[in-house]
Amino acid sequence: MDHPPALSSDLIGRESDVVLFEVERGAIRKFADAVQDQTPACVRGDIAPPTFPTTFRMTIPGLTFDLARVLHGAQEYRYERPIRAGDLLRCRVRVADVYRRHGSLGEMTFLILAMEGTDESGGPVFTGTTTAILR
Amino acid sequence: MIGPVLATRPDAELDSGSVLPDLRKPPITKLQLVKYAGASGDYNLIHTDDKTARTVGLEGVIAHGMLSMAFLGEYLCWLAGPESVRRLAVRFVAMVRPGDTLTCRGRVKERSTNDAVRRLRLEVWTENQRAERVTVGEAEVDIK
């Protein structure tokens, strides 16, 4: 199996297109059901569970890696307000950092992705930071 | 399960170091991982296909780290209400497999008050049935 070339720091600053996501009540309910999240507003599909932004998937041109070799090391979300059914969110993700570290598993590459979502008028709604570790 | 469970607590019960109530989740099943893959859009087959998981050296499928984080998201909603969650940051420190039962736990790190809104900084984590922490992190919630 061929592996894509190692990620380089040249990728820092590269970003996805801005993608418009419509937050659907059914998608919230399906997510809450999968998690067995019993929060009434989430079960009804009114308010998205806090980790719902993980469903906003975007691609960054030039960023490819073998999924089987990726570990999700850490994740952070900050919220200005809850995400609600009917929200139209403009989202974008960019490569915030790429660096290498020697660890117990040998050399690993750390990839830091920064995501942000704003409402239609440009007001901030949430930000996310993903730490992915590539072996 | 009716929240928010912390809303009516007096300040004295939300001091730094105060231990928060536990939220025990049902055992994780393979069906749940398939449902979570569909609901989240994370189709990495190491979470749903044992054969793929074994090709990368695992004994079988492992749960999505984000599923454990989602449990902590529910925990915050239960503690403070879904409109009061300001931040959740976690590190994924151990693998979770089907059959594992996770419990969300936490304690107060710091309380600040501003305009009648109390903001709590919390230490939160999920631990498995062997009391091993699998997801550890920090959160901020507002309590009116």
Summarize the structure in words.
The complex is a heterodimer of chains A (135) and B (144). Chain A has a domain at 9-23 and 56-134: Hotdog Thioesterase (Thiol Ester Dehydrase, Chain A). Chain A is 11% helix and 40% strand. Chain A is built from two helices and five strands; from the N terminus they run E-H-H-E-E-E-E. Chain A has a five-stranded antiparallel sheet with strand order 1-3-4-5-2, with no helix packed on it. In chain A, strand 4 (106-118) and strand 5 (124-134) form a beta hairpin. Chain B has a domain at 11-28 and 63-143: Thiol Ester Dehydrase, Chain A (Roll). Chain B has a five-stranded antiparallel sheet, with helices on one face. In chain B, a hairpin with a 2-residue loop joins strand 3 (103-114) and strand 4 (117-127). The longest helix of chain B is centred in the middle third of the chain and has 16 residues, at 65-80. Chain B is elongated. Chain B starts with 22 loop residues before the first strand and ends with a strand. The mean pLDDT of chain B is 95. Chain A binds chain B through residues 27, 30-31, 33-39, 41-42, 47, 49-51, 54-55, 57, 67-79, 81-82, 129, and chain B through 1, 3, 25-26, 32, 35-36, 38-42, 44-46, 52, 55-56, 64-67, 69-71, 73-74, 76-78, 82-83, 85-92.
